[in-house]
Design the sequence.
C-alpha cells in the first residue's frame, strides 16, 4: 500500500497525512532525522495499515465511542515501530486515530438523536439501504394505514414518545401504509365502504395502537405515505432488547382474514420470499374462512375500488338517461298547457335537480 492510497476500510480524510508528516519530522531526534526517506514512507505505511486494522474492528455503538477512542489510540500507537522517546510521533498517531473514530462514529451518533417528523423527512439513503426505524403507533386511520411517532435511540432510552401539544398528527407523525397488503375499504370522501372495512380497522387498532414498533421503509408513495413493513415489538423489555418476539403486522392482518395481497402498481413486498409467505398465509385464511372470507361472495378491496371508479361513471349516465326521459314525458300538447307549465318552470327544475342528486347519493350508500 503506497502512502498516497488508503485502505478501503480506512474512511479518513487524506488531509490528515501531511499533519503526521509534519509531527513526525519535528518530533524525531537528530539521530532519527538522518533516516532515509524510504524508511519514513515505510513508517507511514505501517501507520495506515494499523489504522485500517483498527477501523475494521471499530465498534459502531455510539455509547462505547469514548472508550473506543482511548483503547484504539493506545493499541494503534503500540503497533508502530517507534521508540518511546518519539513522543511527537505518538501524539500525531493518537490524533490521527481519534479523528478516525470521530469520522466513523459521528454519523451513528447523529442517527441516534435525529427524529423524523413525517415521511417526507426520511432521507433517501435510509430508504435505499432498507434501514430499520423505530417508533410508537399513535393513530390508526383504516385497515392498512397507521401513524407512527418516530423515536431514535436516545428517545427510546428516555422513553420519549409523547406528542407535542397544539400540533397536528400530520406534522409530527409518519403516515405509514402497510406494504404488500390491502385491507377492506372504509367509508370516506363521500364513498361507501366495505362491510369488513371498520372491522379490519378495529382489529388493527387493537393490535397496534400504543405499541412500540420497528418498520423498514421501502418507498414514499404519491400521497407522501411511507410504504413500510411494520413489526410489532413485544411488551417484555428483555425480548425487545434481544430483538425477539417481533410480529409482522401485515402478515398477522392477513392471517386474521382482513387483508389480501396487494398487486397494484408500486407494490412492495420486501423480497420474493416474503411475497410467497403472504400468498401462503392468505390461502390458509381463505381455506379456514376467516374474517371476510367467511362470506360466500367476497369482493376484494382491489375489485371494490374498480367498481367505485366504474360506478361513478354509471351513475352519471343513469342521471342523463332519466333526465332525457322526463323531458320527453313533460312535452306540452297545446299552448294552454305550455303557458301553465312555463309559470312553474323554475320550481320543477329545482325538484328534478334534487331528485337526480338523491339518486346519485343513494347509489353510494
Sequence:
Amino acid at each position: 500500500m503506497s502512502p498516497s492510497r488508503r485502505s478501503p476500510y480506512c474512511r479518513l480524510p487524506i488531509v490528515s497525512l501531511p499533519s503526521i508528516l509534519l509531527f513526525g519530522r519535528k518530533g524525531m531526534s537528530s539521530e532519527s532525522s538522518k533516516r532515509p526517506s524510504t524508511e519514513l514512507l515505510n513508517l507511514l505505511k505501517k501507520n495506515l495499515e494499523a489504522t485500517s486494522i483498527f477501523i475494521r474492528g471499530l465498534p459502531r455503538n455510539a455509547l462505547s465511542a469514548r472508550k473506543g477512542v482511548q483503547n484504539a489510540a493506545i493499541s494503534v500507537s503500540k503497533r508502530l515501530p517507534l521508540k518511546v522517546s518519539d513522543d511527537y510521533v505518538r501524539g500525531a498517531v493518537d490524533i490521527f486515530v481519534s479523528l478516525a473514530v470521530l469520522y466513523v462514529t459521528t454519523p451513528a451518533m447523529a442517527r441516534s438523536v435525529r427524529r423524523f417528523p413525517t415521511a417526507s423527512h426520511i432521507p433517501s439513503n435510509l430508504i435505499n439501504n432498507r434501514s430499520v426505524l423505530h417508533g410508537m403507533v399513535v393513530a390508526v386511520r383504516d385497515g392498512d394505514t397507521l401513524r407512527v411517532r418516530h423515536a431514535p435511540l436516545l428517545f427510546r432510552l428516555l422513553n420519549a414518545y409523547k406528542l407535542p401539544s397544539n400540533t397536528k398528527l400530520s406534522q409530527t407523525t409518519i403516515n405509514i401504509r402497510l406494504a404488500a397488503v390491502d385491507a377492506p375499504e372504509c367509508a370516506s370522501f363521500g364513498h361507501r365502504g366495505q362491510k369488513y372495512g371498520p372491522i379490519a380497522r378495529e382489529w388493527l387498532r387493537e393490535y397496534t395502537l400504543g405499541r412500540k414498533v420497528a418498520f423498514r421503509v421501502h418507498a414514499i408513495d404519491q400521497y407522501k405515505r411511507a410504504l413500510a413493513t411494520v413489526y410489532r415489538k413485544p411488551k417484555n423489555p428483555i425480548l425487545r432488547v434481544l430483538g425477539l418476539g417481533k410480529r409482522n403486522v401485515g402478515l398477522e392482518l392477513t392471517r386474521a382474514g382482513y387483508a389480501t395481497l396487494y398487486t397494484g402498481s408500486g407494490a412492495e413486498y420486501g423480497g420474493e420470499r416474503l411475497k410467497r409467505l403472504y400468498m401462503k398465509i392468505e390461502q390458509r385464511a381463505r381455506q379456514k374462512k376467516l374474517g371476510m372470507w367467511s362470506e360466500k361472495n367476497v369482493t376484494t378491496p382491489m375489485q371494490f375500488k374498480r367498481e367505485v371508479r366504474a360506478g361513478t361513471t354509471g351513475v352519471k349516465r343513469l342521471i342523463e338517461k332519466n333526465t332525457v326521459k322526463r323531458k320527453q314525458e313533460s312535452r306540452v300538447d297545446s299552448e294552454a298547457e305550455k303557458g301553465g307549465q312555463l309559470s312553474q318552470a323554475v320550481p320543477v327544475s329545482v325538484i328534478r335537480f334534487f331528485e337526480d342528486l338523491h339518486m346519485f347519493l343513494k347509489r353510494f350508500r
Remarks:
- Residues 16-111 form one domain.
- The chain has three domains: 16-111, 119-294, 301-363.
- The CA atoms of residues 339 and 345 lie 10 Å apart.
